[in-house]
Design goal:
Structural class of chain B: alpha/beta
Largest sheet of chain B: 5 strands, mixed, barrel
Number of strands of chain B: 7
Order of helices and strands of chain B: EHEHEHEHEHEEH
Distance between the termini of chain B: 26 Å
Helix content of chain A: 25-40%
Helix content of chain B: 25-40%
CATH architecture of the largest domain in chain A: 2-Layer Sandwich
Oligomer: heterodimer
Radius of gyration of chain A: 19 Å
Number of strands of chain A: 10
Strand content of chain B: 25-35%
Order of helices and strands of chain A: EHHHEEHEEHEHEHHEEE
CATH topology of chain B: fumarase
Number of domains of chain B: 1
Number of helices of chain A: 8
CATH class of the largest domain in chain A: Alpha Beta
CATH class of chain B: Alpha Beta
Shape of chain A: globular
Number of domains of chain A: 2
Largest sheet of chain A: 4 strands, mixed
Distance between the termini of chain A: 14 Å
Chain lengths: 281, 184
Protein backbone atom coordinates (compact mmCIF):
# COMPACT_ATOMS: atom_id res chain seq x y z
CA UNK A 1 0.00 0.00 0.00
CA UNK A 2 1.18 3.48 -0.83
CA UNK A 3 -0.12 6.22 1.44
CA UNK A 4 -0.99 9.67 0.10
CA UNK A 5 -1.81 12.33 2.66
CA UNK A 6 -5.18 14.01 2.06
CA UNK A 7 -3.84 17.56 2.59
CA UNK A 8 -0.98 16.97 0.19
CA UNK A 9 -3.43 15.75 -2.45
CA UNK A 10 -5.70 18.75 -1.96
CA UNK A 11 -2.74 21.05 -2.49
CA UNK A 12 -1.76 19.32 -5.75
CA UNK A 13 -5.34 19.48 -7.04
CA UNK A 14 -5.51 23.19 -6.18
CA UNK A 15 -2.38 23.86 -8.20
CA UNK A 16 -3.65 21.71 -11.09
CA UNK A 17 -6.92 23.66 -11.21
CA UNK A 18 -5.14 27.02 -11.36
CA UNK A 19 -2.53 25.93 -13.90
CA UNK A 20 -5.10 24.39 -16.25
CA UNK A 21 -7.11 27.62 -16.30
CA UNK A 22 -4.14 29.89 -17.00
CA UNK A 23 -1.90 27.87 -19.31
CA UNK A 24 -3.22 26.45 -22.58
CA UNK A 25 -1.70 23.06 -23.57
CA UNK A 26 1.11 23.37 -26.16
CA UNK A 27 -0.67 21.20 -28.73
CA UNK A 28 -3.71 23.49 -28.69
CA UNK A 29 -1.55 26.62 -28.83
CA UNK A 30 0.37 25.22 -31.82
CA UNK A 31 -2.88 24.30 -33.59
CA UNK A 32 -4.12 27.87 -33.17
CA UNK A 33 -0.85 29.22 -34.61
CA UNK A 34 -1.23 26.89 -37.60
CA UNK A 35 -4.84 28.06 -37.99
CA UNK A 36 -3.59 31.65 -38.07
CA UNK A 37 -1.26 30.77 -40.95
CA UNK A 38 -4.02 28.96 -42.86
CA UNK A 39 -6.94 31.31 -42.29
CA UNK A 40 -7.88 33.45 -45.31
CA UNK A 41 -10.52 35.70 -43.75
CA UNK A 42 -9.02 39.01 -42.50
CA UNK A 43 -11.47 39.12 -39.59
CA UNK A 44 -10.70 35.47 -38.84
CA UNK A 45 -6.98 36.18 -38.78
CA UNK A 46 -7.50 39.19 -36.54
CA UNK A 47 -9.44 37.02 -34.07
CA UNK A 48 -6.81 34.26 -34.14
CA UNK A 49 -4.10 36.87 -33.49
CA UNK A 50 -6.11 38.11 -30.49
CA UNK A 51 -6.42 34.54 -29.21
CA UNK A 52 -2.65 34.01 -29.46
CA UNK A 53 -1.95 37.31 -27.70
CA UNK A 54 -4.55 36.55 -25.03
CA UNK A 55 -3.00 33.18 -24.23
CA UNK A 56 0.42 34.78 -23.90
CA UNK A 57 -0.95 37.44 -21.52
CA UNK A 58 -2.72 34.76 -19.46
CA UNK A 59 0.48 32.69 -19.20
CA UNK A 60 2.68 35.67 -18.37
CA UNK A 61 0.37 37.23 -15.78
CA UNK A 62 -1.18 33.99 -14.55
CA UNK A 63 -4.71 35.10 -15.40
CA UNK A 64 -7.51 32.80 -16.52
CA UNK A 65 -7.51 32.46 -20.32
CA UNK A 66 -11.28 32.81 -20.32
CA UNK A 67 -13.55 34.33 -17.69
CA UNK A 68 -15.63 31.18 -17.96
CA UNK A 69 -13.48 28.91 -15.85
CA UNK A 70 -16.06 26.21 -16.26
CA UNK A 71 -17.57 23.26 -14.52
CA UNK A 72 -14.75 21.28 -12.87
CA UNK A 73 -14.54 17.88 -14.58
CA UNK A 74 -12.00 15.29 -13.41
CA UNK A 75 -10.88 12.08 -15.12
CA UNK A 76 -9.00 9.91 -12.63
CA UNK A 77 -7.08 6.65 -12.76
CA UNK A 78 -6.61 5.48 -9.21
CA UNK A 79 -4.06 2.73 -8.62
CA UNK A 80 -5.57 -0.01 -6.45
CA UNK A 81 -2.48 0.02 -4.20
CA UNK A 82 -3.09 3.61 -3.06
CA UNK A 83 -4.57 4.58 0.27
CA UNK A 84 -5.59 8.22 0.79
CA UNK A 85 -5.17 9.04 4.46
CA UNK A 86 -7.52 11.59 5.98
CA UNK A 87 -10.37 11.66 3.47
CA UNK A 88 -11.73 10.30 0.21
CA UNK A 89 -10.46 10.96 -3.30
CA UNK A 90 -13.63 12.83 -4.22
CA UNK A 91 -13.40 15.03 -1.12
CA UNK A 92 -9.81 15.90 -2.08
CA UNK A 93 -10.81 16.79 -5.65
CA UNK A 94 -13.66 18.96 -4.39
CA UNK A 95 -11.59 20.72 -1.72
CA UNK A 96 -8.75 21.31 -4.22
CA UNK A 97 -11.28 22.81 -6.62
CA UNK A 98 -12.72 25.05 -3.91
CA UNK A 99 -9.28 26.38 -2.94
CA UNK A 100 -8.03 26.66 -6.52
CA UNK A 101 -11.00 28.74 -7.62
CA UNK A 102 -10.63 31.00 -4.58
CA UNK A 103 -6.86 31.45 -4.53
CA UNK A 104 -6.50 31.57 -8.32
CA UNK A 105 -9.15 34.31 -8.74
CA UNK A 106 -11.19 32.01 -10.98
CA UNK A 107 -14.87 32.63 -11.62
CA UNK A 108 -17.42 30.64 -9.65
CA UNK A 109 -19.96 29.51 -12.23
CA UNK A 110 -22.03 26.80 -10.54
CA UNK A 111 -25.65 27.27 -9.39
CA UNK A 112 -27.17 25.12 -6.65
CA UNK A 113 -30.20 23.77 -8.44
CA UNK A 114 -30.55 23.71 -12.21
CA UNK A 115 -34.07 25.10 -12.58
CA UNK A 116 -35.69 26.96 -9.73
CA UNK A 117 -33.31 28.84 -7.40
CA UNK A 118 -30.19 28.84 -9.57
CA UNK A 119 -28.26 30.39 -6.69
CA UNK A 120 -24.50 30.50 -7.11
CA UNK A 121 -22.78 28.04 -4.75
CA UNK A 122 -19.94 30.55 -4.38
CA UNK A 123 -17.02 28.11 -4.59
CA UNK A 124 -17.45 26.37 -7.98
CA UNK A 125 -18.45 23.09 -6.38
CA UNK A 126 -19.78 20.46 -6.70
CA UNK A 127 -17.62 18.82 -9.35
CA UNK A 128 -18.03 16.02 -11.91
CA UNK A 129 -15.78 12.96 -11.70
CA UNK A 130 -14.99 9.93 -13.84
CA UNK A 131 -12.97 7.61 -11.63
CA UNK A 132 -11.46 4.33 -12.77
CA UNK A 133 -9.58 1.90 -10.55
CA UNK A 134 -6.45 0.54 -12.22
CA UNK A 135 -3.61 -1.69 -11.06
CA UNK A 136 -0.48 -0.18 -9.53
CA UNK A 137 0.40 2.59 -7.08
CA UNK A 138 0.03 5.69 -9.23
CA UNK A 139 -2.70 8.31 -9.18
CA UNK A 140 -3.33 10.06 -12.50
CA UNK A 141 -5.60 13.11 -12.40
CA UNK A 142 -6.75 15.03 -15.45
CA UNK A 143 -8.66 18.25 -14.90
CA UNK A 144 -10.83 19.93 -17.52
CA UNK A 145 -12.63 23.20 -16.78
CA UNK A 146 -15.58 22.95 -19.18
CA UNK A 147 -17.16 26.25 -20.21
CA UNK A 148 -20.90 26.61 -20.67
CA UNK A 149 -20.99 28.10 -24.16
CA UNK A 150 -19.48 25.11 -25.94
CA UNK A 151 -21.15 22.60 -23.60
CA UNK A 152 -24.58 23.96 -24.60
CA UNK A 153 -23.95 22.76 -28.16
CA UNK A 154 -23.58 19.09 -27.14
CA UNK A 155 -26.00 16.42 -28.33
CA UNK A 156 -26.60 12.66 -28.13
CA UNK A 157 -28.43 10.75 -30.87
CA UNK A 158 -29.51 7.11 -30.80
CA UNK A 159 -29.07 6.40 -34.49
CA UNK A 160 -30.26 3.25 -36.17
CA UNK A 161 -27.39 0.87 -37.09
CA UNK A 162 -28.64 0.95 -40.69
CA UNK A 163 -27.70 4.64 -40.92
CA UNK A 164 -24.05 3.59 -40.93
CA UNK A 165 -21.05 5.86 -41.21
CA UNK A 166 -22.95 8.32 -43.41
CA UNK A 167 -25.51 8.73 -40.64
CA UNK A 168 -22.71 9.45 -38.14
CA UNK A 169 -21.15 12.04 -40.46
CA UNK A 170 -24.47 13.74 -41.13
CA UNK A 171 -25.25 14.03 -37.43
CA UNK A 172 -21.81 15.40 -36.46
CA UNK A 173 -21.61 17.92 -39.31
CA UNK A 174 -25.17 19.11 -38.76
CA UNK A 175 -24.42 19.61 -35.07
CA UNK A 176 -21.33 21.73 -35.81
CA UNK A 177 -23.15 23.67 -38.53
CA UNK A 178 -26.11 24.55 -36.31
CA UNK A 179 -23.75 25.62 -33.52
CA UNK A 180 -22.25 28.33 -35.73
CA UNK A 181 -20.26 30.90 -33.77
CA UNK A 182 -21.81 30.07 -30.39
CA UNK A 183 -19.26 27.51 -29.06
CA UNK A 184 -16.28 29.85 -29.76
CA UNK A 185 -14.76 28.29 -32.89
CA UNK A 186 -12.25 27.17 -33.94
CA UNK A 187 -13.49 24.24 -31.87
CA UNK A 188 -12.30 20.76 -31.05
CA UNK A 189 -15.01 18.25 -31.93
CA UNK A 190 -15.32 15.31 -29.55
CA UNK A 191 -17.31 12.43 -31.00
CA UNK A 192 -18.38 9.33 -29.11
CA UNK A 193 -19.75 6.32 -30.99
CA UNK A 194 -21.05 3.17 -29.29
CA UNK A 195 -21.67 2.10 -25.72
CA UNK A 196 -24.97 3.23 -24.23
CA UNK A 197 -26.91 6.50 -23.99
CA UNK A 198 -24.89 7.64 -20.97
CA UNK A 199 -21.54 6.06 -21.90
CA UNK A 200 -21.42 7.64 -25.36
CA UNK A 201 -21.57 11.12 -23.83
CA UNK A 202 -18.61 10.21 -21.62
CA UNK A 203 -16.71 9.02 -24.72
CA UNK A 204 -17.34 12.32 -26.51
CA UNK A 205 -16.05 14.29 -23.54
CA UNK A 206 -13.02 12.03 -23.08
CA UNK A 207 -12.23 12.54 -26.79
CA UNK A 208 -11.59 16.23 -26.06
CA UNK A 209 -8.58 15.31 -23.93
CA UNK A 210 -6.61 13.66 -26.73
CA UNK A 211 -3.52 15.50 -27.96
CA UNK A 212 -4.14 17.31 -31.23
CA UNK A 213 -2.37 15.42 -34.01
CA UNK A 214 -3.04 11.98 -32.52
CA UNK A 215 -5.66 9.82 -34.19
CA UNK A 216 -7.93 6.89 -33.39
CA UNK A 217 -5.83 3.68 -33.32
CA UNK A 218 -8.11 2.01 -35.87
CA UNK A 219 -7.32 3.36 -39.37
CA UNK A 220 -10.99 3.34 -40.38
CA UNK A 221 -11.95 5.68 -37.54
CA UNK A 222 -8.78 7.75 -38.04
CA UNK A 223 -10.00 8.24 -41.61
CA UNK A 224 -13.43 9.25 -40.29
CA UNK A 225 -11.71 11.91 -38.15
CA UNK A 226 -9.89 13.29 -41.21
CA UNK A 227 -13.03 13.25 -43.36
CA UNK A 228 -15.08 15.01 -40.70
CA UNK A 229 -12.41 17.67 -40.13
CA UNK A 230 -12.19 18.29 -43.86
CA UNK A 231 -15.96 18.63 -44.26
CA UNK A 232 -16.34 20.82 -41.16
CA UNK A 233 -13.65 23.17 -42.44
CA UNK A 234 -15.60 23.60 -45.66
CA UNK A 235 -18.63 24.96 -43.80
CA UNK A 236 -17.22 28.52 -43.81
CA UNK A 237 -18.14 29.22 -40.16
CA UNK A 238 -14.61 30.33 -39.24
CA UNK A 239 -13.24 31.92 -36.06
CA UNK A 240 -16.14 33.01 -33.81
CA UNK A 241 -18.55 32.24 -36.66
CA UNK A 242 -17.69 35.42 -38.56
CA UNK A 243 -16.69 33.48 -41.68
CA UNK A 244 -13.47 31.69 -42.53
CA UNK A 245 -11.67 28.49 -43.38
CA UNK A 246 -10.83 27.24 -39.91
CA UNK A 247 -13.93 26.11 -38.01
CA UNK A 248 -12.36 23.16 -36.17
CA UNK A 249 -8.79 22.50 -35.01
CA UNK A 250 -9.37 18.76 -34.69
CA UNK A 251 -11.97 15.99 -34.66
CA UNK A 252 -11.41 13.20 -32.14
CA UNK A 253 -13.53 10.05 -32.33
CA UNK A 254 -13.73 7.57 -29.45
CA UNK A 255 -15.50 4.27 -30.04
CA UNK A 256 -16.85 1.41 -27.93
CA UNK A 257 -18.80 -1.78 -28.67
CA UNK A 258 -22.57 -1.46 -28.50
CA UNK A 259 -25.83 -3.42 -28.45
CA UNK A 260 -27.05 -5.21 -31.61
CA UNK A 261 -30.01 -2.81 -31.81
CA UNK A 262 -28.19 0.49 -31.23
CA UNK A 263 -25.68 2.97 -32.62
CA UNK A 264 -25.35 5.80 -30.09
CA UNK A 265 -23.48 8.91 -31.25
CA UNK A 266 -22.55 11.94 -29.14
CA UNK A 267 -20.96 15.26 -29.99
CA UNK A 268 -19.25 17.39 -27.35
CA UNK A 269 -17.54 20.57 -28.52
CA UNK A 270 -14.64 22.34 -26.88
CA UNK A 271 -13.95 26.01 -27.52
CA UNK A 272 -10.53 27.14 -28.79
CA UNK A 273 -9.59 27.68 -25.13
CA UNK A 274 -9.40 23.89 -24.82
CA UNK A 275 -7.98 23.77 -21.33
CA UNK A 276 -6.94 20.58 -19.57
CA UNK A 277 -3.96 19.32 -17.61
CA UNK A 278 -2.83 15.99 -16.22
CA UNK A 279 -0.69 15.20 -13.19
CA UNK A 280 0.60 11.85 -12.02
CA UNK A 281 1.20 11.37 -8.31
CA UNK B 1 -15.33 47.77 -43.85
CA UNK B 2 -14.96 50.93 -41.80
CA UNK B 3 -13.42 51.57 -38.42
CA UNK B 4 -15.22 53.68 -35.83
CA UNK B 5 -14.13 55.04 -32.47
CA UNK B 6 -17.32 55.74 -30.51
CA UNK B 7 -17.97 57.22 -27.08
CA UNK B 8 -20.87 56.06 -24.91
CA UNK B 9 -23.77 56.75 -24.48
CA UNK B 10 -24.52 56.05 -28.15
CA UNK B 11 -26.90 58.08 -30.31
CA UNK B 12 -29.11 57.29 -33.32
CA UNK B 13 -26.50 59.00 -35.52
CA UNK B 14 -23.81 56.66 -34.21
CA UNK B 15 -25.97 53.61 -34.98
CA UNK B 16 -27.15 54.60 -38.46
CA UNK B 17 -23.67 54.74 -39.93
CA UNK B 18 -22.60 51.28 -38.72
CA UNK B 19 -22.55 48.31 -41.11
CA UNK B 20 -22.07 44.60 -40.42
CA UNK B 21 -18.35 43.82 -40.54
CA UNK B 22 -17.24 47.28 -39.38
CA UNK B 23 -14.80 47.51 -36.51
CA UNK B 24 -15.94 49.55 -33.52
CA UNK B 25 -13.79 50.69 -30.60
CA UNK B 26 -15.88 51.81 -27.63
CA UNK B 27 -14.79 54.27 -24.97
CA UNK B 28 -16.80 55.32 -21.91
CA UNK B 29 -19.27 53.55 -19.62
CA UNK B 30 -20.81 50.18 -20.51
CA UNK B 31 -22.79 47.79 -18.27
CA UNK B 32 -22.43 44.05 -17.82
CA UNK B 33 -25.59 41.95 -17.58
CA UNK B 34 -26.11 38.29 -18.40
CA UNK B 35 -28.76 35.61 -17.81
CA UNK B 36 -29.83 36.20 -14.19
CA UNK B 37 -29.50 40.02 -14.35
CA UNK B 38 -31.65 40.12 -17.49
CA UNK B 39 -34.35 38.13 -15.75
CA UNK B 40 -34.38 40.64 -12.89
CA UNK B 41 -34.24 43.72 -15.14
CA UNK B 42 -37.20 42.55 -17.17
CA UNK B 43 -39.16 41.63 -14.04
CA UNK B 44 -38.53 45.17 -12.76
CA UNK B 45 -39.68 46.65 -16.08
CA UNK B 46 -42.85 44.57 -16.07
CA UNK B 47 -43.67 45.57 -12.48
CA UNK B 48 -42.94 49.23 -13.22
CA UNK B 49 -40.15 49.33 -10.63
CA UNK B 50 -37.19 51.71 -10.98
CA UNK B 51 -34.19 50.31 -12.86
CA UNK B 52 -30.65 50.32 -11.48
CA UNK B 53 -29.13 51.68 -14.72
CA UNK B 54 -30.01 54.36 -17.25
CA UNK B 55 -30.97 52.46 -20.39
CA UNK B 56 -31.19 55.42 -22.76
CA UNK B 57 -28.17 55.23 -25.07
CA UNK B 58 -26.74 52.38 -23.01
CA UNK B 59 -24.43 49.60 -24.14
CA UNK B 60 -24.95 46.22 -22.45
CA UNK B 61 -22.09 43.73 -22.39
CA UNK B 62 -23.08 40.09 -21.92
CA UNK B 63 -20.32 39.16 -19.53
CA UNK B 64 -19.55 37.88 -16.06
CA UNK B 65 -15.93 38.52 -15.09
CA UNK B 66 -13.45 36.46 -13.12
CA UNK B 67 -12.59 38.08 -9.75
CA UNK B 68 -10.01 40.87 -9.87
CA UNK B 69 -6.57 39.77 -8.66
CA UNK B 70 -4.80 42.29 -6.37
CA UNK B 71 -3.76 45.37 -8.36
CA UNK B 72 -6.16 44.76 -11.25
CA UNK B 73 -9.43 46.69 -11.80
CA UNK B 74 -11.11 43.49 -12.99
CA UNK B 75 -10.36 39.85 -13.77
CA UNK B 76 -10.58 38.21 -17.19
CA UNK B 77 -13.73 39.34 -18.96
CA UNK B 78 -14.83 38.07 -22.36
CA UNK B 79 -18.33 37.83 -23.82
CA UNK B 80 -20.84 35.07 -23.12
CA UNK B 81 -23.09 33.58 -25.83
CA UNK B 82 -25.84 36.07 -26.69
CA UNK B 83 -28.81 33.96 -27.80
CA UNK B 84 -29.76 33.18 -24.19
CA UNK B 85 -30.62 36.88 -23.74
CA UNK B 86 -32.74 37.05 -26.95
CA UNK B 87 -35.99 36.70 -25.05
CA UNK B 88 -35.29 39.93 -23.14
CA UNK B 89 -33.45 42.01 -25.75
CA UNK B 90 -36.34 43.65 -27.68
CA UNK B 91 -37.78 45.06 -24.43
CA UNK B 92 -34.44 46.60 -23.52
CA UNK B 93 -34.00 48.16 -26.97
CA UNK B 94 -37.52 49.60 -26.67
CA UNK B 95 -36.32 51.43 -23.53
CA UNK B 96 -33.32 52.94 -25.31
CA UNK B 97 -30.48 50.41 -25.19
CA UNK B 98 -28.43 51.21 -28.31
CA UNK B 99 -26.06 48.27 -28.42
CA UNK B 100 -25.42 44.87 -26.94
CA UNK B 101 -22.05 43.11 -27.01
CA UNK B 102 -21.75 39.33 -26.99
CA UNK B 103 -20.85 36.42 -29.23
CA UNK B 104 -22.71 34.16 -31.64
CA UNK B 105 -25.83 34.28 -33.78
CA UNK B 106 -29.21 35.54 -32.49
CA UNK B 107 -32.92 35.37 -33.25
CA UNK B 108 -34.88 37.13 -35.97
CA UNK B 109 -36.84 38.92 -33.24
CA UNK B 110 -33.61 40.59 -32.10
CA UNK B 111 -32.77 41.61 -35.67
CA UNK B 112 -36.23 43.12 -36.06
CA UNK B 113 -35.85 45.05 -32.79
CA UNK B 114 -32.57 46.56 -34.08
CA UNK B 115 -34.46 47.98 -37.07
CA UNK B 116 -37.44 49.16 -35.05
CA UNK B 117 -35.47 50.88 -32.28
CA UNK B 118 -32.29 51.89 -34.15
CA UNK B 119 -29.78 49.69 -32.36
CA UNK B 120 -26.89 47.40 -33.15
CA UNK B 121 -25.52 44.01 -32.08
CA UNK B 122 -21.76 43.94 -31.59
CA UNK B 123 -19.53 40.91 -31.09
CA UNK B 124 -16.11 40.56 -29.59
CA UNK B 125 -13.98 37.43 -29.58
CA UNK B 126 -14.89 34.87 -26.94
CA UNK B 127 -12.08 33.38 -24.90
CA UNK B 128 -9.74 36.36 -25.19
CA UNK B 129 -10.75 37.44 -21.72
CA UNK B 130 -7.34 38.41 -20.33
CA UNK B 131 -6.75 40.63 -23.37
CA UNK B 132 -10.16 42.32 -23.11
CA UNK B 133 -9.65 42.96 -19.39
CA UNK B 134 -6.79 45.29 -20.37
CA UNK B 135 -9.36 47.61 -21.98
CA UNK B 136 -11.28 47.99 -18.72
CA UNK B 137 -10.01 50.89 -16.63
CA UNK B 138 -12.53 50.76 -13.77
CA UNK B 139 -15.25 48.38 -12.63
CA UNK B 140 -17.92 48.70 -9.98
CA UNK B 141 -20.83 46.46 -8.99
CA UNK B 142 -23.95 48.63 -9.19
CA UNK B 143 -26.83 46.16 -8.83
CA UNK B 144 -27.75 42.60 -7.85
CA UNK B 145 -24.54 41.97 -5.95
CA UNK B 146 -25.95 38.67 -4.64
CA UNK B 147 -25.67 37.26 -8.17
CA UNK B 148 -21.87 37.17 -7.85
CA UNK B 149 -20.33 37.05 -11.33
CA UNK B 150 -23.78 37.77 -12.78
CA UNK B 151 -24.20 41.11 -10.94
CA UNK B 152 -24.58 44.27 -13.03
CA UNK B 153 -21.25 46.05 -13.23
CA UNK B 154 -20.41 49.48 -14.53
CA UNK B 155 -17.27 49.27 -16.64
CA UNK B 156 -15.23 52.21 -17.80
CA UNK B 157 -13.64 51.00 -21.02
CA UNK B 158 -11.01 52.47 -23.32
CA UNK B 159 -11.04 51.49 -27.02
CA UNK B 160 -12.89 48.24 -26.33
CA UNK B 161 -12.62 46.26 -29.61
CA UNK B 162 -15.79 44.92 -31.30
CA UNK B 163 -17.15 43.99 -34.70
CA UNK B 164 -20.62 45.01 -35.91
CA UNK B 165 -22.49 41.70 -36.19
CA UNK B 166 -26.02 42.89 -37.00
CA UNK B 167 -26.64 46.47 -38.11
CA UNK B 168 -29.99 48.29 -38.10
CA UNK B 169 -30.25 47.95 -41.89
CA UNK B 170 -30.47 44.12 -41.90
CA UNK B 171 -26.75 43.42 -42.38
CA UNK B 172 -25.56 40.16 -40.78
CA UNK B 173 -21.84 39.40 -40.46
CA UNK B 174 -22.47 35.67 -39.82
CA UNK B 175 -24.44 35.16 -43.02
CA UNK B 176 -22.04 37.34 -45.03
CA UNK B 177 -18.96 35.59 -43.66
CA UNK B 178 -20.19 32.03 -44.02
CA UNK B 179 -21.50 32.70 -47.53
CA UNK B 180 -18.12 34.05 -48.53
CA UNK B 181 -16.04 31.18 -47.15
CA UNK B 182 -18.27 28.09 -47.46
CA UNK B 183 -17.03 25.66 -50.10
CA UNK B 184 -20.20 23.62 -50.43
Amino acid sequence: MRVIEFDELVDKVKQLVIDANCYLPDDVMNAIKTAYEEEESPIGREILAQIIENNEIARRERLPICQDTGFAVFFVELGSEIYIKGGTLEQALEEGTRRGYKEGYLRKSIVDDPVINRKNTGDNTPIATHIHIVTGDKLKITFMPKGGGAENMAEVAMLSPAEGIEGVKRFVIERVKRSGGRPCPPVIVGVGIGGTFDYVAYLAKRALLRRIGEHHPDDRFAQLERDLLDEINQLGIGPMGLGGRVTALAVHVETYPCHIATMPVAVNLNCHAARHKTIVI
Amino acid sequence: MSEWHLTTPLTDDDIEKLRAGDRVYLTGIIYTARDAAHKRLVEAIEKGNPLPIELNGAVIYYAGPAPAPPGYPIGSIGPTTSYRMDKFTPQLHALGVKATIGKGERSDAVKQALKTYKAVYLVTAGGVAALLAKRVKRAEVIAYEDLGPEAIRLLEVDEFPCFVAYDMHGGDIFVQGVTQYARK
